[in-house]
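pasting for the record
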Amino acid sequence: MVECTAEAMNILIIEDDSTTAEFVAGAFRQAGYSTEHVSDGETGLAAILHGPYDAAVVDIMLPKLDGLEIIRRLRTAGKALPVIVLSARGSVDAKIRGLEAGGDDYLSKPFSVAELVARVQALLRRANRATETTVLKVDDLEMDLVTHRVTRAGVPIDLQPLEYQLLEYLLRNRGRVVSRNTILDRVWNYSFDPHTNLVESRVYHLREKIDRNSERKLIRTVRGFGYVLG
Protein backbone atom coordinates (compact mmCIF):
# COMPACT_ATOMS: atom_id res chain seq x y z
CA MET A 1 0.00 0.00 0.00
CA VAL A 2 1.14 3.50 -0.80
CA GLU A 3 1.56 5.74 2.27
CA CYS A 4 -0.44 8.97 2.26
CA THR A 5 1.73 12.10 2.43
CA ALA A 6 1.12 15.76 3.02
CA GLU A 7 2.51 16.69 -0.41
CA ALA A 8 -0.01 18.61 -2.53
CA MET A 9 -2.86 17.84 -0.11
CA ASN A 10 -5.40 20.54 0.59
CA ILE A 11 -7.41 20.79 3.81
CA LEU A 12 -10.65 22.79 3.98
CA ILE A 13 -11.37 24.43 7.33
CA ILE A 14 -14.97 25.51 7.94
CA GLU A 15 -14.83 27.51 11.18
CA ASP A 16 -16.43 30.85 12.12
CA ASP A 17 -13.95 31.69 14.88
CA SER A 18 -11.04 33.35 13.10
CA THR A 19 -8.57 32.73 15.94
CA THR A 20 -9.32 29.00 16.00
CA ALA A 21 -9.22 28.81 12.20
CA GLU A 22 -5.86 30.56 12.03
CA PHE A 23 -4.46 28.30 14.74
CA VAL A 24 -5.66 25.14 12.95
CA ALA A 25 -4.51 26.34 9.53
CA GLY A 26 -1.05 27.15 10.91
CA ALA A 27 -0.70 23.64 12.35
CA PHE A 28 -1.61 22.02 9.03
CA ARG A 29 0.70 24.28 7.06
CA GLN A 30 3.52 23.45 9.43
CA ALA A 31 2.84 19.77 8.74
CA GLY A 32 3.18 20.42 5.00
CA TYR A 33 -0.46 20.75 3.91
CA SER A 34 -2.19 23.50 1.98
CA THR A 35 -5.26 24.99 3.67
CA GLU A 36 -8.31 27.04 2.77
CA HIS A 37 -10.68 28.65 5.26
CA VAL A 38 -14.34 29.65 5.04
CA SER A 39 -16.30 31.11 7.94
CA ASP A 40 -19.98 30.36 7.27
CA GLY A 41 -22.02 27.27 6.50
CA GLU A 42 -23.41 28.24 3.10
CA THR A 43 -19.99 29.12 1.69
CA GLY A 44 -18.60 26.03 3.36
CA LEU A 45 -21.18 23.77 1.72
CA ALA A 46 -20.40 25.14 -1.74
CA ALA A 47 -16.68 24.75 -1.13
CA ILE A 48 -16.85 21.22 0.26
CA LEU A 49 -19.08 20.02 -2.58
CA HIS A 50 -17.09 21.49 -5.43
CA GLY A 51 -13.57 22.27 -4.24
CA PRO A 52 -10.41 20.18 -4.77
CA TYR A 53 -9.97 19.10 -1.15
CA ASP A 54 -8.48 15.97 0.37
CA ALA A 55 -10.12 16.37 3.80
CA ALA A 56 -12.21 18.86 5.76
CA VAL A 57 -12.34 20.12 9.34
CA VAL A 58 -15.92 21.26 10.07
CA ASP A 59 -17.20 23.13 13.11
CA ILE A 60 -20.79 22.37 14.11
CA MET A 61 -21.91 25.84 15.25
CA LEU A 62 -21.75 27.95 12.09
CA PRO A 63 -23.72 30.95 10.80
CA LYS A 64 -26.20 30.40 7.91
CA LEU A 65 -25.91 26.59 7.93
CA ASP A 66 -24.68 24.31 10.70
CA GLY A 67 -21.84 21.84 10.26
CA LEU A 68 -23.96 18.70 10.61
CA GLU A 69 -26.18 19.79 7.74
CA ILE A 70 -23.11 20.46 5.62
CA ILE A 71 -21.90 16.91 6.24
CA ARG A 72 -25.36 15.40 5.60
CA ARG A 73 -25.59 17.14 2.24
CA LEU A 74 -22.03 16.11 1.39
CA ARG A 75 -22.88 12.45 2.01
CA THR A 76 -26.23 12.72 0.21
CA ALA A 77 -24.29 13.97 -2.81
CA GLY A 78 -22.21 10.78 -2.64
CA LYS A 79 -18.96 12.47 -1.65
CA ALA A 80 -16.59 10.34 0.44
CA LEU A 81 -14.29 13.20 1.47
CA PRO A 82 -12.84 12.52 4.96
CA VAL A 83 -14.38 14.93 7.50
CA ILE A 84 -13.50 15.56 11.13
CA VAL A 85 -16.10 17.38 13.25
CA LEU A 86 -15.18 20.10 15.75
CA SER A 87 -17.62 21.08 18.47
CA ALA A 88 -17.84 22.80 21.83
CA ARG A 89 -20.35 20.10 22.72
CA GLY A 90 -18.44 17.19 24.16
CA SER A 91 -21.26 14.94 25.27
CA VAL A 92 -21.59 11.40 23.99
CA ASP A 93 -24.91 12.29 22.33
CA ALA A 94 -23.27 15.19 20.46
CA LYS A 95 -20.50 12.91 19.23
CA ILE A 96 -23.01 10.31 18.09
CA ARG A 97 -24.96 12.95 16.15
CA GLY A 98 -21.77 14.11 14.47
CA LEU A 99 -20.83 10.60 13.41
CA GLU A 100 -24.38 9.69 12.35
CA ALA A 101 -24.49 12.79 10.15
CA GLY A 102 -21.53 11.34 8.23
CA GLY A 103 -18.49 12.65 10.08
CA ASP A 104 -15.49 10.33 10.13
CA ASP A 105 -14.12 11.56 13.47
CA TYR A 106 -15.02 14.01 16.23
CA LEU A 107 -13.01 16.35 18.46
CA SER A 108 -14.39 18.41 21.33
CA LYS A 109 -13.20 21.94 22.01
CA PRO A 110 -10.76 22.78 23.47
CA PHE A 111 -8.53 20.38 21.57
CA SER A 112 -4.88 19.79 20.78
CA VAL A 113 -3.98 20.88 17.25
CA ALA A 114 -1.32 18.17 17.18
CA GLU A 115 -4.03 15.60 17.85
CA LEU A 116 -6.24 17.16 15.18
CA VAL A 117 -3.49 16.96 12.57
CA ALA A 118 -2.71 13.36 13.58
CA ARG A 119 -6.37 12.36 13.29
CA VAL A 120 -6.72 13.92 9.86
CA GLN A 121 -3.56 12.15 8.74
CA ALA A 122 -5.06 8.85 9.94
CA LEU A 123 -8.26 9.55 7.98
CA LEU A 124 -6.24 10.30 4.85
CA ARG A 125 -4.25 7.08 5.20
CA ARG A 126 -7.47 5.12 5.64
CA ALA A 127 -9.02 6.77 2.58
CA ASN A 128 -5.89 6.07 0.59
CA ARG A 129 -5.98 2.37 1.52
CA ALA A 130 -9.65 2.14 0.61
CA THR A 131 -9.08 3.49 -2.91
CA GLU A 132 -5.81 1.78 -3.67
CA THR A 133 -6.07 -0.85 -6.37
CA THR A 134 -5.47 -4.46 -5.38
CA VAL A 135 -4.66 -5.60 -8.92
CA LEU A 136 -1.76 -4.40 -11.08
CA LYS A 137 -2.18 -5.04 -14.80
CA VAL A 138 -0.36 -4.52 -18.07
CA ASP A 139 -1.80 -6.02 -21.26
CA ASP A 140 -2.83 -9.59 -20.28
CA LEU A 141 -0.42 -9.76 -17.31
CA GLU A 142 -2.09 -9.41 -13.90
CA MET A 143 -0.82 -9.39 -10.32
CA ASP A 144 -3.28 -9.67 -7.44
CA LEU A 145 -1.70 -7.89 -4.46
CA VAL A 146 -4.01 -9.61 -1.99
CA THR A 147 -3.59 -13.24 -3.07
CA HIS A 148 -0.12 -12.72 -4.62
CA ARG A 149 -1.40 -14.56 -7.68
CA VAL A 150 0.25 -13.69 -11.00
CA THR A 151 -1.28 -14.67 -14.35
CA ARG A 152 -0.60 -14.07 -18.05
CA ALA A 153 -3.64 -14.52 -20.29
CA GLY A 154 -5.29 -16.25 -17.35
CA VAL A 155 -2.50 -18.80 -16.94
CA PRO A 156 -0.91 -18.84 -13.44
CA ILE A 157 2.80 -18.00 -13.21
CA ASP A 158 4.82 -19.36 -10.30
CA LEU A 159 7.32 -16.77 -9.05
CA GLN A 160 9.99 -16.89 -6.38
CA PRO A 161 9.68 -14.13 -3.70
CA LEU A 162 12.43 -11.97 -5.23
CA GLU A 163 10.92 -12.38 -8.69
CA TYR A 164 7.54 -11.32 -7.33
CA GLN A 165 9.04 -8.22 -5.70
CA LEU A 166 10.83 -7.31 -8.92
CA LEU A 167 7.70 -7.75 -11.02
CA GLU A 168 5.62 -5.70 -8.58
CA TYR A 169 8.10 -2.85 -8.82
CA LEU A 170 8.13 -2.99 -12.63
CA LEU A 171 4.32 -3.07 -12.71
CA ARG A 172 4.06 -0.06 -10.41
CA ASN A 173 6.45 1.77 -12.73
CA ARG A 174 5.00 0.42 -15.98
CA GLY A 175 6.04 2.37 -19.04
CA ARG A 176 9.01 3.93 -17.24
CA VAL A 177 12.63 2.91 -17.66
CA VAL A 178 14.17 1.92 -14.32
CA SER A 179 17.91 1.46 -13.88
CA ARG A 180 19.59 -1.58 -12.34
CA ASN A 181 20.86 0.56 -9.44
CA THR A 182 17.35 1.85 -8.76
CA ILE A 183 16.05 -1.73 -8.72
CA LEU A 184 18.77 -2.75 -6.26
CA ASP A 185 17.88 0.17 -4.01
CA ARG A 186 14.08 0.05 -4.24
CA VAL A 187 13.40 -3.68 -4.54
CA TRP A 188 16.01 -5.22 -2.28
CA ASN A 189 17.46 -2.20 -0.46
CA TYR A 190 20.91 -3.42 -1.36
CA SER A 191 24.04 -1.43 -2.06
CA PHE A 192 26.13 -3.79 -4.19
CA ASP A 193 29.34 -3.69 -6.10
CA PRO A 194 28.39 -1.94 -9.37
CA HIS A 195 29.63 -4.97 -11.31
CA THR A 196 27.18 -7.39 -9.70
CA ASN A 197 24.87 -9.20 -12.11
CA LEU A 198 22.09 -9.84 -9.58
CA VAL A 199 19.56 -7.63 -11.39
CA GLU A 200 20.42 -8.98 -14.83
CA SER A 201 20.05 -12.54 -13.54
CA ARG A 202 16.68 -11.89 -11.87
CA VAL A 203 15.31 -10.01 -14.87
CA TYR A 204 16.40 -12.86 -17.16
CA HIS A 205 14.57 -15.49 -15.09
CA LEU A 206 11.51 -13.25 -14.67
CA ARG A 207 11.38 -12.58 -18.42
CA GLU A 208 11.57 -16.33 -19.09
CA LYS A 209 8.47 -16.88 -16.95
CA ILE A 210 6.49 -13.83 -18.09
CA ASP A 211 7.27 -13.66 -21.81
CA ARG A 212 8.33 -17.16 -22.84
CA ASN A 213 4.93 -18.34 -24.11
CA SER A 214 3.59 -15.01 -25.38
CA GLU A 215 4.06 -13.27 -28.71
CA ARG A 216 4.15 -9.84 -27.11
CA LYS A 217 7.22 -9.38 -24.93
CA LEU A 218 6.45 -7.14 -21.95
CA ILE A 219 9.85 -6.84 -20.26
CA ARG A 220 12.38 -5.00 -22.41
CA THR A 221 16.00 -4.02 -21.89
CA VAL A 222 16.81 -0.41 -22.77
CA ARG A 223 20.51 -0.68 -23.47
CA GLY A 224 22.59 1.65 -21.35
CA PHE A 225 19.62 2.70 -19.21
CA GLY A 226 17.79 -0.21 -17.61
CA TYR A 227 14.50 -2.05 -17.99
CA VAL A 228 10.92 -1.20 -18.84
CA LEU A 229 7.70 -3.16 -18.57
CA GLY A 230 4.83 -2.39 -20.89
